[in-house]
């Protein structure tokens, strides 16, 4: 099973420390924080990564997968939204990679920053964001107990 909690905590804590603003999950019923802030949505929880299950000596089977997040900076100031989106992308693509790797989080890729502005009744919310793809392993305990090694086989009266 993917350690989604470690991924969420590691990415959010790292981004919050680097940007100095709140990081929240999108689509919650709570009031959003004051501007500026970053919101994220896990758009693809688990996607095949052109691999197959592998058996490892520790008794855990693993398959490479990816998880995609949509990351958006929201602000009431356009320049601030752009600057923070660039900084967030810079963190995931370069500056924060050692911090993330030390905590078992690997950023496979980040996309271009795009405009995601939103008109809210009579106010304008400036939004800029990008997607980040995280590389990881889905893990499960080996479903079949190992039964040992076949020492010899007799087939058609021949060993």
CATH architecture type: 2-Layer Sandwich
Global mean pLDDT: 89
The low-confidence runs, each spanning 5 or more residues with pLDDT under 50, are none
Global outline: elongated
Q: Which sheet architecture does the biggest sheet show?
A: 8 strands, mixed
Number of domains: 1
The whole-angstrom Rg is 22 Å
Roughly how many Å apart are the termini? 42 Å
Taken as a percent bin, the fraction of beta residues is 35-45%
Q: Give the helix/strand class.
A: alpha+beta
* CATH class category: Alpha Beta
Strand and helix order: HEEEEHHEEEE
Instruction: Give me the number of helical elements.
Output: 3
CATH topology type: Alpha-Beta Plaits
Report the CATH superfamily: Phage minor tail protein U
Counted beta strands: 8
Task: Indicate the percent of residues in helices.
Answer: 25-40%
In short:
The chain has 159 residues and is α+β, with helices and mostly antiparallel strands.
